[in-house]
């Protein structure tokens, strides 16, 4: 008796998501879960190697750690509040206002989020420092400099997350409220705001998470005066050499990160089912009166908050002794602090390229497996592979530093480990970029190709790939810029004679000397320009705005 047609294919379809998903899950287990578990173990054993979980409470229960936790949470809460206040008008602008050149506005809003954090810190030092544009405010060296920089960095999360939901929201309930006599403010407060609340809560949780685990911004703007758990882990490791204390602080931070991720997951779950809209939701044109004023205010936020800081960085890099000069850029070809900045540029580009390819390969396998997978295992695998996006990069770098020596060849001596760490951080973004595009493909197209005799790999190649090609290009771009600007994990892993450009900028900005500062400024501008160009290309090729990162 012959085997029923398609039975072999059915078995293949049942097993291949598991096979594909095993690769990124295994990679995440080795290069993320193992290092994090090793940190937890390091914090739970005493100096004699005995398992003593109670001892960690003694390390936590000190006034110094209490101050670290209070400052970490306090500045994160203040940064989140300011980010919401500035980001919600921009979200409305992107969602409900038809503007000429809106793609340029999207690029301007998105670029700060993918800028290297060390570049953001340098930009605000050049903006707020004595003798600079906003030096008269006296904010340089205060906690407000950190809060402002965090708002600049994270406005894109609020604008894109809330704005995406807002754009897809059915406007008819608000229109009905207006028709029944409610004013625009009341209609928004009673009809629109409650439906936006889950998206706002989700964005707030993510912003809080990023601000609580911020490294480059706090290190550059706060120095040793303002320290968070993130920067203290780094200082305890590379300056004090107290690995147990660093591990204890990492565990404390992991608990905070887990709580923030749980809140974000609950908020996203609450947002489901509240954002459906007709196929073509009307978009309001800037009208007279209140709407036009609101649009102008939102554009002013984009200009003042998002354009002026990087613009001041560019201007400062071109000013020497009160005149205009390219001196800072000429220095890039000379030796500064023992390293030629152009060599660091080459190292950064090469490492980011390797990391982007690795993140794409892993993220593509994960997205295909998650798209075709079913059941509880799919949800668990999805959550597991998203963890690197939420866990501190400093924690990941520290964990890799203390574990990778156990592997053959000791990867700690190889530049490949830097690319691996950057790929781990970028992979969740690749998955989140590709998965919605894959889920949007009509299954009937795949079924028709299968009926015509195409095997599953051929179906994916001929049906799925052409439809997700633009999302694939966007995923590669995001992975590249994230890897290019990664600072937290790379600062642990980069070799002293082969630093990436962000690591070199952090080194230069902490040293006195006009040439050191000039090289740091020129390097920061170079990174910002490359990032901006790539984000502009991504926005140009994206199939659609999915509303969140």
TrEMBL record:
InterPro entries named in the record: MetI-like (IPR000515), MetI-like_sf (IPR035906)
UniProt-listed SUPFAM superfamilies: MetI-like
Subcellular location: Cell inner membrane; Cell membrane
Membrane topology: Multi-pass membrane protein
Stretches assigned to the ABC transmembrane type-1 domain: 69-262, 345-538
GO cellular component terms, semicolon-separated: plasma membrane
UniProt-recorded name of the protein: Iron ABC transporter permease
Organism for this UniProt entry: Tomitella fengzijianii
Taxonomic classification: Bacteria, Bacillati, Actinomycetota, Actinomycetes, Mycobacteriales
């Amino acid at each position: 008796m012959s085997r029923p047609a398609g039975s072999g294919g059915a078995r293949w379809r049942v097993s291949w998501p598991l096979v594909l998903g095993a690769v990124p899950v295994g990679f995440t287990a080795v290069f993320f879960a193992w290092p994090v578990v090793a940190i937890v173990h390091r914090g739970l054993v005493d100096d004699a190697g005995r398992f003593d979980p109670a001892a960690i409470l003694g390390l936590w229960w000190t006034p110094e750690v209490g101050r670290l936790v209070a400052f970490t949470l306090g500045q994160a809460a203040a940064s989140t509040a300011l980010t919401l206040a500035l980001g919600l008008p921009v979200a409305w602008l992107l969602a409900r206002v038809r503007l000429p050149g809106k793609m340029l506005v999207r690029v301007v809003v998105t670029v700060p989020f993918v800028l290297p954090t060390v570049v953001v810190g340098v930009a605000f030092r050049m903006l707020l420092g004595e003798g600079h544009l906003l030096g008269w405010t006296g904010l340089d060296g205060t906690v407000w400099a950190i809060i402002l920089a965090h708002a600049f960095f994270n406005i894109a999360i609020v604008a894109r997350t809330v704005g995406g939901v807002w754009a897809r929201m059915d406007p008819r309930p608000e229109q009905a409220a207006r028709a029944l006599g409610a004013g625009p403010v009341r209609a928004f407060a009673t009809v629109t705001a409650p439906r936006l609340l889950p998206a706002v809560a989700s964005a707030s949780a993510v912003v809080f998470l990023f601000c609580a685990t911020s490294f480059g911004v706090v290190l550059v703007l706060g120095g040793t005066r303002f320290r968070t758990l993130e920067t203290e882990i780094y200082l305890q490791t590379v300056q004090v050499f107290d690995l147990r204390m660093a591990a204890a602080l990492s565990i404390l931070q992991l608990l905070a990160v887990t709580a923030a991720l749980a809140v974000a997951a609950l908020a996203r779950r609450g947002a489901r089912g509240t954002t459906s809209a007709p196929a073509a939701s009307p978009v309001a044109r800037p009208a007279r009166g209140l709407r036009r004023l609101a649009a102008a205010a939102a554009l002013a936020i984009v200009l003042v908050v998002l354009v002026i800081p990087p613009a001041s960085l560019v201007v400062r890099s071109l000013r020497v002794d009160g005149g205009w000069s390219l001196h800072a850029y000429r220095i890039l070809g000379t030796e500064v602090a023992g390293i030629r900045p152009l060599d660091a540029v080459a190292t950064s580009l090469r490492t980011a390229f390797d990391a982007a390819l690795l993140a794409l390969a892993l993220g593509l396998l994960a997205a295909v497996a998650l798209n075709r997978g079913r059941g509880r295992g799919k949800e668990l695998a999805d959550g597991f592979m998203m963890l690197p996006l939420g866990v501190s990069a400093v924690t990941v770098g520290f964990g890799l530093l203390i574990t990778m020596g156990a592997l053959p060849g000791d990867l700690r001596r190889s530049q490949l480990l830097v690319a691996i760490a950057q790929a781990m951080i970028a992979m969740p973004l690749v998955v989140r970029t590709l998965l919605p595009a894959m889920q949007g493909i009509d299954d009937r197209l795949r079924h028709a190709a299968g009926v015509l005799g195409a095997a599953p790999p051929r179906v994916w190649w001929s049906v799925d790939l052409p439809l997700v090609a633009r999302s694939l290009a966007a995923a590669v771009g995001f992975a590249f810029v994230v890897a290019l600007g990664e600072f937290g994990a790379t600062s642990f892993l980069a070799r002293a004679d082969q630093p990436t450009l962000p690591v070199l900028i952090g080194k230069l900005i902490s040293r006195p000397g006009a040439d050191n500062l000039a090289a740091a400024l020129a390097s920061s501008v170079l990174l910002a320009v490359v990032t901006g160009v790539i984000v502009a290309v991504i926005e140009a090729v994206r199939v659609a705005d999915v509303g969140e990162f």
